[in-house]
Amino acid sequence: MSAAGSTRVPGVNEISTRDRERLIEAALAARENAYSSRGHPPFRVGAALLAADGRVVAGASVDCVSSGERRVRGVLRAVCAERTAMVAAVSEGMRAFRAVAIASDVPQPVSPCGLCRQVLDEFCTRELAVLLVPGDYRARVGAGDAGGGVRVLALGALLPMVDGPFSRMTQG
Ligand SMILES: [Zn+2]
To answer: Ligand 1 centre from 2 Cα, in Å?
Structure first.
C-alpha cells in the first residue's frame, strides 16, 4: 500500500504528500467562496492547481445568470472552479502544472466537465494528476481513512484522443 496521501498511479505525475495536502486544502477552502446566482440552488466547487514551480492557485465556481436569459428561463452560465483557477494562474504568468484538486459538496468525487478538460489540456500534459476530492474528505480523514476517498487519475484518462497542444506533440 502506498504511503497515505502520496500519488503513485502509473502515467500520473507523482506529487509529495505535503503538496497533495496543500492542494486539497486549497480546493476545499476555495469551495467556501463559490457563488451561485440568487434563487438558484448552489452547487459549490473549489479547485486548486499545483504549478510546476510549486505555487498553488485556487478558484471557486461562479454561476451567473446572463441578462438575456434571466426573464426567460434563468439558465445559469457556469464558470467552473477548474477554469477559474486556471485563468487566475495563467493571468499570473504560470504556464506549467503538475496537479489539480477538485472538491464539491457531494460525497462522490466530481470530475471536470468537457470544457474544463479541454482547458486543462491546453496547459497541462496528459500526466497531470487530477485529484477528485469527496465533499466529506475531512470527515473521512477524521474517521481514520488516511486517503480521504480521493480518486487520482491522469488528465489523459479523462480526455482520451484529444486534439490539444500537448497531444499533437506526443501522439503519432
Ligand atoms: Zn467545467
So the answer is: 30
